Every structure is written in structure tokens, then in C-alpha cells.
Amino acid sequence: MVQSKHVKVSGPLFDGRAKRALNDFIREFAEGYADDVNDELQNRFQQKFKNPTGRYASHVRARRVGVGRSAVDGGDLPYGPWLEGGTRRNQRSRFKGYHSFRLVTRKMRRRAGPEANAEFKRRYLRRMNGI
Fold this sequence. Notes:
Layout: H1 12-15, H2 17-48, H3 55-59, E1 61-66, E2 69-73, H4 80-84, H5 88-92, H6 100-128
Antiparallel strand pairs: 1-2
């Protein structure tokens, strides 16, 4: 004799709330963190540039490049690579570049994991648990 057993499932894992919370976290954290990276770059520019005009800094911006992915770039100014120190001209001159993107990227990569964990626990974990 065969008996059929039914299991009733409910809660955020089964009704889609957990998935929505996770997707929201991925999107919102990436966008917010790109803004944080941009802020760090702007602060570095203010501290390190010798004669700032604001033109280069005004072209640096965070942008969305995909789901849960953002990027910060220096726009299309022709002297951006020179300011960073990435041209042959830098090798021949005394000015070796500010290396702002490289240094800020290194700093922010170290902070990304702990900040993501804290943000997830603070804003999204409760939603995934259905609280």
C-alpha cells in the first residue's frame, strides 16, 4: 500500500522574499560602494593635486556596468592616464603620476568584504529570515 505524504513549505526562502532581498543587496551595495570609491578618489584628489582646477575630478564618476556591478572611471580626458602615471611620458619626466586609482582601489578592496558583511547583516538578513 502506497501512502502519499505532503509537505507544506512556506516562508521567505520559498515565496521569493529571500531571493529579492539578496538581489536588492547585490544591486544596492555595488551602487553604494561605487559612490564610496568615488568619494575616496575625490578626497585623494583634493589632498594630493598640486594645482587642482577641478576639471579632472569633475569627470570621475561612478556608473552602473551590470547587475550588481558598478565602476568608477576617469572619463575620457586625454591627460587622465598621465595624471595616473600610466604613460611613457611619466617614465621620462620627474612627474611619475598620482596613482590615485590604483591606491584607492587597493584601499577599498580591503574594506569591501567587511563593509558588505556589515551592511548585509544590518539591512538584509532580517528580510531573508522573514522578520
